[in-house]
């Protein structure tokens, strides 16, 4: 498909239409009254038109003989004339970036610098404006700097000029205007200037520092800024971005087996353009040329359209992402621009439950009308309908779509199988997206002219690691899915029920065998049913026998210490009550202003300790939230050392925990208190922990915390709690005795759990042998 000139799809005003067509303004006004004339898009009070649509309309309008210019023949159209004007002007136009060059900085360096930009400098720049406005500043600067051209040159001139007291406003205006102009030439309506002018930098030097720091980022840093944007913009379920790992799985799996790199790529629900960018990156990795791709999409948010356009431009393609408010299958003037695609990728909004609605009566649905009020299978059929012969699609669907009981959806699944459209369904973990915990699957679909005789099911639900409340797929997880996908396809039955390295389980089944279970296309159903019961039972039995043997040996070791027999029940030594404030320095965690929520990320260097991390006298973790080494250095008075005791300051009060060698250097969070024994204090940390963990001691703290508006206890109030303090040697003896009893109890608890697992595995083995 021809992609046209470099600025063919930009946004133009009526005056520009007159220049291209060589007519006066009243003529353009008259044309605009025609019903077939392209509809304008508004940017404030200004009406703009997509140049490609205007050219297509002008192609059908022949120039009257009396209006022909020199060298124009009879039959010349206004479209012909306009393209000659564009061709003459392109030599002086600034091009969009071509194939991206390698980043000049490492990924870790870029990630660290983005985190620094989101630190104290963010507050110094934004003032009363929103965090999103500040994020837009970073995105605009990075986009302009990497794209280069006269717009970035204009910004650097303003930076160097300074402009005195009013310099911040002048510089923000220059950055906003340059971005809006660049995006308009790419065909995107932008309002970045208005967003940036809401910022209130404290000094011109602060703003200039941000410009220069962004200028040191590598080309690939745009994605790290986007990650922060998604978090801070609190995007709704219809707007959140698709994780890069999921985008990569979709792009590479859908492209495999096509025999040639895609030329036309489309996303009918483009969000921030992350799937389109992933497809472009996958094409470039295979030796393709991004500049030769025709990349198109529809987005439902004005802000995300701007981000998508910048993202794609930085990947070396001309973005064609249009703002739309209706369903993508509704009739559109430019529908032909996205027909016969090589690759369709989309993550549409979906309904998560069974749909009770009746099948809709309007629309053309070759595989069956989807139910009213649920567009799951509408998007699925729309994606297949956009494919040309040899094309493939990847669609994110809720897991429920694979085995829903709705009659219309069962019939659609049956027809998809009959036509051989479904190639693969990949079940992914839950909590992959920022706004929903719902588990999803990726459906890989093909054009019905090349039907699949088998369907591959991959169960990858166990992959990923928890970070910041989400589950994140790493590079090894992506490779595990793609390896299972590529190597399970060639031979039906050979890999059925196999668990590949990395924890992905596969089942490759003939489509004629999938009419059971209401034509379920759920990997959960199909992979479990395809497993060999005898092999699974044997494997589980062997594993649990080994685990039980290990745990029983542990109990023998702890029992050999004869802890119970060595207990010394002699009368206790005299004790004296001592207030905690006499023994310890008690310090609360940093304030919310010193440790803000946005400074806690999964990518930091130093772990934070929160109340939820205190469990059974120990600190679990490290958790998902960390801070940078630079911030930890500034908050060094809140660091933890071995022998410290950490208590809950606010929230649900529970027993405290002892800091051990592993947690040395970790940082307190706002909601905890630290007890550190003073030099020369006659107390043992482990004995003190045992005293403070007693139900009576925990209740003492809970009662005083509950007396406040929100459950909380201050360092001063905690200091009044008293503990019974025998001589130091006696404390050490008691602490060792308690530790030995705890270890013996834990060993027996682990052994009991292992024996119960063995019992269940043995039962399963007996049943599977029937």
**Alpha carbon gyration radius:** 32 Å
Q: Work out the count of structural domains.
A: 4
> What fraction strand?
5-15%
Q: Quick one: CATH class of the largest domain?
A: Alpha Beta
Structural class: alpha+beta
C-alpha end-to-end distance: 61 Å
Total DSSP helices = 27
CATH fold label of the largest domain: Rossmann fold
Parts with pLDDT < 50 across at least 5 consecutive residues:
1-7, 94-106, 491-495
Let me know the average pLDDT. 82
Domain Type I restriction modification DNA specificity: 578-743
Keywords: DNA-binding, Methyltransferase, Restriction system, Transferase
GO molecular function: methyltransferase activity
InterPro entries: DNA_methylase_A-5, Restrct_endonuc_typeI_TRD, Restrct_endonuc_typeI_TRD_sf, SAM-dependent_MTases_sf, Type-I_RE_MTase_Subunit
Topology:
Layout: E1 11-12, H1 14-21, H2 25-32, E2 41-43, E3 46-50, H3 51-58, H4 78-89, H5 107-117, H6 120-126, H7 131-147, H8 149-161, H9 167-185, H10 192-196, H11 204-214, H12 222-233, H13 244-255, E4 264-267, H14 274-285, E5 294-299, H15 302-314, E6 319-323, E7 341-346, H16 376-385, E8 387-398, H17 407-418, E9 422-427, E10 440-446, E11 454-459, E12 465-467, E13 470-472, H18 475-488, E14 498-499, E15 505-510, H19 516-519, H20 523-530, H21 533-560, E16 576-579, H22 580-583, E17 584-588, E18 606-609, E19 614-615, E20 618-619, E21 626-627, H23 629-634, E22 645-648, E23 657-658, E24 667-668, E25 672-677, H24 685-693, H25 695-706, H26 715-718, E26 722-725, H27 728-768
Helix pairs in contact: 1-2, 1-4, 3-4, 7-9, 7-12, 7-15, 8-9, 13-14, 13-18, 21-27
Pfam families: Methylase_S, N6_Mtase
InterPro entries: DNA_methylase_A-5, Restrct_endonuc_typeI_TRD, Restrct_endonuc_typeI_TRD_sf, SAM-dependent_MTases_sf, Type-I_RE_MTase_Subunit
GO molecular function, one term: methyltransferase activity
């Amino acid at each position: 498909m021809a992609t046209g000139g470099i600025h063919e799809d930009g946004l133009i005003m009526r005056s520009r239409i007159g220049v291209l067509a060589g007519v006066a303004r009243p003529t353009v006004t008259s044309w605009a009254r025609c019903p077939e004339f392209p509809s304008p898009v508004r940017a404030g009070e200004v009406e703009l038109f997509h140049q490609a649509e205007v050219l297509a309309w002008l192609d059908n309008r022949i120039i009257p003989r009396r209006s022909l210019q020199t060298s124009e023949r009879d039959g010349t159209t206004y479209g012909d004339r306009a393209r000659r004007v564009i061709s003459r002007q392109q030599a002086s136009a600034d091009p969009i970036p071509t194939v991206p060059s390698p980043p000049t900085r490492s990924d870790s360096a870029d990630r660290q610098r983005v985190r620094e930009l989101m630190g104290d400098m963010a507050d110094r720049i934004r003032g009363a404006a929103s965090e999103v406005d500040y994020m837009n500043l970073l995105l605009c600067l990075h986009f302009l700097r990497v794209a280069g051209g006269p717009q970035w040159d204009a910004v650097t001139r303003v930076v160097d000029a300074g402009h005195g007291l009013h310099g911040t406003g002048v510089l923000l205006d220059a950055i906003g205007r340059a971005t809006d102009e660049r995006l308009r030439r790419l065909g995107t309506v932008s309002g970045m200037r208005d967003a940036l002018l809401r910022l209130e930098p404290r000094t011109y030097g602060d703003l200039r520092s941000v410009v220069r720091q962004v200028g040191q980022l590598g080309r690939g840093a745009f994605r790290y800024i986007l990650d922060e944007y998604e978090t801070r913009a609190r995007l709704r379920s219809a707007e959140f971005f698709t994780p890069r790992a999921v985008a990569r799985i979709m792009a590479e799996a859908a492209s495999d087996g096509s025999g040639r790199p895609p030329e036309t790529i489309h996303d009918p629900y483009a969000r921030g353009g992350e799937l389109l960018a992933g497809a472009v990156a996958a094409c470039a990795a295979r030796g393709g040329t991004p500049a030769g791709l025709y990349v198109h999409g529809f987005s439902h948010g004005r802000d995300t359209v701007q981000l998508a356009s910048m993202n794609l431009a930085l990947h070396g393609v001309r973005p064609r992402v249009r703002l739309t408010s209706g369903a993508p299958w509704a009739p559109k003037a430019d529908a032909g621009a996205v027909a016969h695609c090589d690759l369709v990728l989309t993550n549409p909004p979906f309904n998560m439950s069974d749909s009770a609605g009746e099948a809709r009566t309007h629309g053309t649905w070759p595989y069956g009308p989807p139910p009213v009020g649920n567009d799951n299978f509408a998007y699925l059929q729309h994606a297949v309908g956009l494919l040309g012969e040899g094309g493939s699609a990847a669609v994110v669907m809720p897991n429920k779509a694979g085995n829903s009981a709705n009659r219309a959806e069962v019939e659609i699944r049956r027809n998809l199988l009959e036509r051989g459209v479904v190639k693969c369904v990949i079940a992914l973990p839950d909590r992959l997206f920022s706004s929903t915990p719902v588990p999803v699957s990726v459906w890989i679909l093909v054009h019905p002219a090349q039907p699949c005789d088998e369907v591959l099911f991959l169960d990858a639900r166990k992959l990923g690691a928890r970070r910041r409340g989400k589950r994140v797929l790493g590079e090894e997880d992506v490779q595990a899915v793609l390896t299972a996908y590529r190597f399970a396809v060639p031979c039906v039955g050979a890999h059925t029920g196999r668990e590949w390295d990395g924890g992905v389980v596969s089942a490759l089944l003939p489509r004629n065998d999938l009419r059971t279970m209401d034509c379920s296309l759920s990997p959960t159903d199909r992979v479990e049913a395809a497993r060999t019961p005898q092999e699974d039972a044997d494997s589980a039995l062997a594993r649990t026998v080994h685990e039980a043997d290990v745990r029983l040996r542990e109990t023998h070791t702890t029992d050999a210490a004869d802890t119970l027999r060595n207990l010394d029940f002699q009368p206790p030594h005299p004790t004296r009550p001592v207030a905690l404030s006499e023994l310890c320095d008690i310090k609360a965690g940093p304030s919310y202003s010193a440790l803000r929520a946005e400074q806690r990320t999964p990518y930091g260097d130093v772990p934070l300790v929160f109340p939820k991390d205190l469990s059974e006298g120990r600190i679990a973790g490290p958790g998902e939230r960390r801070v940078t080494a630079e911030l930890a250095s500034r908050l060094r008075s809140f660091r933890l050392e071995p022998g410290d005791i950490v208590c809950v300051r606010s929230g649900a009060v529970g027993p405290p925990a002892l800091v051990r060698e592993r947690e040395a250097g970790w940082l307190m969070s706002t909601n905890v208190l630290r007890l550190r024994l003073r030099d020369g204090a006659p107390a043992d940390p482990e004995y003190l922990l045992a005293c403070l963990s007693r139900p009576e001691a925990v209740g003492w703290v809970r009662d005083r915390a509950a007396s406040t508006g929100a459950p909380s206890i201050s360092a001063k109030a905690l200091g009044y709690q008293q503990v019974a303090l025998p001589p130091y040697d006696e404390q050490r003896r008691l602490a060792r005795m308690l530790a030995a009893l705890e270890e013996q109890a834990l060993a027996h608890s682990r052994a009991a759990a292992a024996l119960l697992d063995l019992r269940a595995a043995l039962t399963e083995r007996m049943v599977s042998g029937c």
